Amino acid sequence: MAKQLLGKEVTAALNERIKAKVAQLEEKGVKPTLGIIRVGENESDISYERGATKRCETLGVACEKILLPADVSQEELLKVIDDVNKNDAIHGVLLFRPLPKHLNQSVIENALDPAKDVDCMTDGSMSGVFTGKPIGFPPCTPQACMEILDHDGIDCTGKKAVVIGRSLVVGKPAAMMLIKKNATVTVCHTKTVDMPSVAKEADIVIYAGSLVNPGLLELCKEKCEIYNSAKMTLEEVLEVMVKGHGDGKEIVRLHTGDPCLYGAIREQMDELKKLEIPYEDCPGVSSFCGAAAALEAEYTLPGISQSVVITRMAGRTPVPEKESVRSFAAHQATMVLFLSTGLLKELSAELIEGGYSEDTPAAIVYKATWPEQKVLRCTVGTLEQTAREADVTKTALIVVGEVLDGTYERSKLYDPTFTTEFRQASCSKKELGQTGENQSTEMRQEAEGQSK
User: Fold this and answer.
1) Helix ranges (DSSP H) in 154-207
2) How far is Cα 298 from Cα 292, in angstroms, rounded to an integer?
């Protein structure tokens, strides 16, 4: 029987332990102090700072803040770190990252004394995690996991442990710390095969409504909590995540395709960072790639188009005027339009006004890669009529461009008359014409023979 390990009880016990240690140190005349170094006014850093300050106040730990302008020089910041290293009244240091681009982050991180590096950002602190030597501090999240295991009295000796993620912040340190506890460790990551097995092990799945193939939800285990985010606000989604994380559960935020396109994931990731909840973004295959496969199309054909514009029509959510469909249409590149199936009449007008002719090839791909996929070929002028006749009103992509016509120039990539870095041209264009004609006749005759 699996046992769910909850973090709240451990946190309460750990707080009491730390408060007792703080009191003991104060009796000896030592006031535990955390130094916070913040460069610039990044909102995420300020939010993290508020959380750290509040935590220090709860535990009776003093907090000394060193706030520097975003244009601070590397020499000035290194001087601040050197002063902190030498200041015996500061016992641990948090340096918020990432730093502004004009600063060499690696050099600055490693200038900090590992003995004061409570965020495990120095190479010295990380070496302590991997060698088992008492150098610096391990990263907070994997250390919290070990605290939970210890609190619950779980002996990891001989146990099989699975770590999902291989970052230096969580995954790799957690694996090394479990090995130190004599566990046999398997590390899974974004290149791990059989990703559906991740869903099978999840305790909580939050999926993007009708956009997600329901067959994926059938992979979830029996007691998994499943939430449809189509009916939820960002705050409600985060509430589920925060509670699940606090209860020690494995959470999957299931999007369709690749959420980097119109997936609203940035705001979710930013909030998780503020809340110090670790996550990993697993890439997927976007529906615009699935649509190309369904159309047997290549979006970048030589002599036709070497650019792909991915955009959408302005609807209830506006689009900047400089990114209007009309302005992009002027380039005559391949266009892929999301979230525009309900505005096809307006879309046609925008495309034509921008420069496409009414008879420019177009296609509507409904639920690309799904079992019920539909591929509807048409023209820019017949988009609305084609969708109406097929009863397609949503969950479809629109593809526009001459790449759908079938005429194009031969690629230079495999052209025997073209020299590349890896091979020399093997014949002239005239010779290629004669050879190609002969080869075409031979292949046609061979195909006819096989069919007989």
Assistant:
1) 171-180, 196-201
2) 7
Do the beta carbons of residue 294 and residue 369 sit within 8 Å?
Answer: yes
pLDDT 10s digits, 431-442: 766 555 555 555
Residue whose tokens read 């992979």: 219
HEC string of 41-55 equals CCHHHHHHHHHHHHH
Q: Write the CB contacts of 250 (distance below 8 Å, at least 6 apart in sequence).
A: 164, 201, 202, 203, 204
Cα 176 to chain centroid, rounded: 25
Residue 271 tokens read as 């909030």
Q: What are phi and psi of 347, to 5 degrees?
A: -65, -45
312: left (phi over 0), alpha (psi -120 to 50) or beta: beta
Give the Cβ contact number of residue 126 at 10 Å: 21
Nearest 10 degrees: Cα torsion 379, 383, 387, 389: -70
Q: Residue 10 half-sphere exposure, CB side, CA atoms within 13 Å?
A: 18
pLDDT in tens, 40-68: 988 778 877 888 899 899 999 999 999 99
User: Position 356: which residue type?
Assistant: Y
The terminus-to-terminus CA distance of the chain in angstroms comes to 63
d(CA 193, CA 205): 20
Report residue 85 as tokens: 């290293």
Burial string for 343-353 (b: 16+ CB within 10 Å, else e) reads: bbeebbbbbbe
Q: Are 410 and 302 in contact (CB under 8 A)?
A: yes
Which strands sit side by side in the sheet containing 308-312, from one edge to the other? 308-312, 334-338, 396-400, 361-366, 374-379
pLDDT, tens only, 15-34: 999 999 999 999 999 999 99
Q: Which of 75, 79, 114 is nearest to 93 (CA)?
A: 114
Q: Which residues contact 143 (CB under 8 A, 6 or more apart)?
A: 137, 177
* Contact assessment for residue 124 and residue 109, using Cβ atoms and an 8 Å cutoff: no
Q: How many other C-beta atoms are found inside a 10 Å radius of the C-beta of residue 393?
A: 12
Helix (H) or strand (E) run with residue 147 in it: helix 140-151
Give all strands (DSSP E) within 87-203, no chain letters: 92-95, 160-164, 184-188
